[in-house]
Design brief:
121 residues, alpha+beta, Beta-Lactamase, 5-stranded antiparallel sheet, two-stranded antiparallel sheet
Length: 121
């Protein structure tokens, strides 16, 4: 046990907001359900602009190993952690190189319930 069950929800939210990394979380339907302050600063998109929307509707794009730009959520993992270097297009049109680290989120039964993604510039 990690002890996370002993941490209250306010503390968990504060952790996600203050973590020094750009983080977003999606559910199994591909909807963005969390967007922290750091990713707002990195991308220029506010949480209000992206929460509840599907990844495919997000104008934030990446380049995947030479292929055309795709949705940022196109390569979120189903089974294990995935890391890759890519570029994102900010709301103002500028391009920023980032390292993407994606990991599935599982419930207490081990069922996949979404994914968390961290972007490091």
């Amino acid at each position: 046990m990690s002890g996370i069950e002993n941490i209250n929800d306010d503390f968990k939210r504060a952790l996600l907001e203050t973590i020094p990394c750009s983080v977003f979380i999606i559910d199994n339907a591909g909807r963005i359900i969390y967007w922290n302050r750091s990713i707002q600063q990195l991308t220029g998109y506010t949480a209000d602009e992206v929460l509840g929307s599907g990844c495919e509707n997000l104008k934030l794009t990446i380049c995947d190993e030479g292929s055309p730009a795709t949705s940022i959520c196109a390569h979120l993992p189903k089974d294990s952690e995935h890391q890759m270097e890519c570029e994102i297009r900010r709301k103002d049109g500028s391009v920023v190189p980032v390292v993407r680290t994606s990991k599935p989120v599982r419930d207490s039964r081990g069922e996949n319930i979404g994914a968390i993604e961290a972007l490091s510039a």
